[in-house]
Amino acid sequence: MRLIPQPSNKQNIFPLFAIATFSVSALTLLLLIFHSSILKTVSTDLPASLVQLIDGRAITVNSQENLERHPEIIRRFVAEAMTLMFTWSNKQPALATWQDTSSLLTEEIRQTFESEMQFAGNAINLSNNTESLFIIKQLTQPEKISEGRWQIQISAHRILSINNIQQDTVPFIKRILVKAEDISSISLPKSPTPLQSAIYRLSEARLRIYKVCDIKDQKCTL
Fold this sequence. Notes:
This protein has five helices and seven strands, in the order αββαααββββαβ. It is of the alpha+beta class. Strands 3, 4, 5, 6 and 7 form a five-stranded antiparallel beta sheet that branches. α2 (71-85) packs antiparallel against α5 (194-203). The chain crosses the membrane at residues 12-34.
């Protein structure tokens, strides 16, 4: 009697394997298309927002807006803002420095702070030969006042000199109040100076100083 050979298992499995592979590939393609449409919708709907880096830098990306800031972002902003405002030299005179750095303050306190900035050096003539060096001794951790607002205490010294001869040392012990902003109102000129470039990079934190008062002033945060 002649036996009829039966189909091997491999021949039976191969069509099923091919069908299963095609089904998985089709499902994967559909999922990729679905995810792609979601990502496209998210990227077009969400406005530009802030990403805070652990080293204190801040960058702007497409994300959700918020008024939260990492403490290191706030400390870096206050430290660099004060240093830029009170650092003068022959190549970077006091008046030009103030005109650029005043954009880091709200309009409500610019006039008051300008007077304090000038009168702090009343022992010498604030000419182009006047140099100022700002040295920070202590900077506290930010304390949250309300949503998007913080206070920070700074202890520093301003060393004023004319023609590299020290004339006066002015203590700077203040309470700095800052607030978060949805967008930055500072733009970069076409041919920026190093100071203007530094101010623009600092403004990416979307913070602004809205009050500067004596460290003992209990009504400062009201």
